[in-house]
Design goal:
- The chain has a single domain, classed as Alpha-Beta Barrel (TIM Barrel).
- The protein is of the alpha/beta class and 214 residues long.
- The chain is built from nine helices and eight strands.
- Helix 1 runs parallel beside helix 2 and helix 7 runs parallel beside helix 9.
Length: 214
């Protein structure tokens, strides 16, 4: 049984490297949460192990106070150490079966899929949620991103998923595109640079929340 409910994935903030934020990293995330971000994934490719742990604890404390779950990117041990709700891995990271052995049922396991074929192959006994994409060209954020799916490809991937697996669209997601993305049946949208580059992360989060209900 999953730790998280599908609706908790609605506005999924993935953090950028801390150095890319104007001002304090956690304060920026806090503003987005205040605006309506429903879940936060800590992804940090520039910090060493000690700093990862310290930043993750600080982020977890802020999110706990607001009732928002924390997902840790790619590090099951860190996710367990800080008491996160979930850990997310990509196609080139530890496979879901290895992650599930590491975390048991204490945490949800998220996985990245790139198309309907990979979505159909998801094992719902191992994976609780998937990030599907990139929906649009995401090479500006991730240089090794796969080819864009488009909305039709996204919908096909959502329909291919086994029952009970939550879905989040990733890649090139903006407020302007969000309503059309939600319309393909995903539980949420995942956003990186739309938050980290924003002068007002709270306003961006409000825009995504509004698009979900439009």
């Amino acid at each position: 049984m999953s730790v998280l409910a599908p609706e908790q994935y609605a506005v999924y903030l993935v953090t950028d490297n801390p150095s890319r934020y104007a001002g304090d990293f956690v304060e920026n995330v806090e503003r987005a949460v205040a605006g309506g971000a429903t879940i936060v994934q800590y992804r940090d490719k520039e910090s060493d192990g000690r700093r990862l742990y310290e930043r993750c604890l600080r982020l977890k404390s802020m999110l706990d106070a607001r009732g928002v779950p924390l997902v840790v990117n790619n590090l099951p041990g860190l996710a367990l150490a800080v008491g996160a709700a979930a850990v997310h891995v990509g196609q080139d990271d530890l496979p879901p079966e290895a992650v599930r052995r590491a975390v048991g049922r204490a945490l949800d396991v998220g996985w990245s899929v790139r198309n309907a074929v990979e979505a159909a192959a998801v094992d719902a006994s191992l994976v609780d949620a998937v990030g599907i994409g990139p929906v649009y060209d995401a090479r500006g954020t991730k240089s090794d991103a796969a080819d864009a799916l488009g909305l039709e490809g996204l919908r096909a991937a959502v329909l291919a998923l086994p029952a009970g697996v939550a879905s989040v669209a990733i890649g090139g997601v903006t407020v302007e595109r969000a309503a059309g993305i939600y319309a393909q049946g995903v539980d949420g949208v995942s956003v990186v640079s739309a938050f980290s580059k924003a002068a007002d992360p709270g306003a961006v989060a409000r825009g995504f929340a509004a698009a979900r209900h439009s």
